[in-house]
Specification:
Length: about 120
């Protein structure tokens, strides 16, 4: 059974940085995508960044140049380095797995497994 546990959220000021981690277990082969999503109060869940089955990254336009997604495959940990944070980045951040080689972050309903989330709050 796939299990995802996020950590690293917190409260920082505008312009600050955070690094989120997601421990992934229960999946061994490489035919899956890893992604980060976020959801602000009253808004729909949106894709932030993902690694496809070839481990090629994609990013939402709103975070390009500020966020970096990476994976420590030996430890099976997914990271999201977030720099130059803005108040509009505030939300609950979730990591997710899609059992496919390519699944877009624009389609969160196609992702198969989700963590419980970690809260990120950016104050101005």
């Amino acid at each position: 059974q796939v299990h995802l546990v996020e950590s690293g959220g917190g409260s920082v000021q505008d312009g600050g940085s955070l690094r989120l981690s997601c421990a992934v277990s229960g999946i061994a082969d490489g035919t899956y995508c890893l992604g980060w999503f976020r959801q602000a109060p009253g808004k729909e869940r949106e894709g932030v960044a993902a690694l496809d089955g070839y481990r090629i990254p994609t990013y939402a336009d709103s975070v390009k140049g500020r966020f970096t997604i990476s994976q420590d495959s030996a430890k099976n940990i997914l990271y999201l380095q977030m720099n130059s944070l803005k108040p509009e980045d505030t939300g609950m951040y979730y990591c997710a797995v899609a059992r496919a080689m390519m699944t877009a972050i624009q389609t969160p309903w196609l992702w198969d497994y989700w963590g419980q989330g970690t809260q990120v709050t950016i104050s101005s």
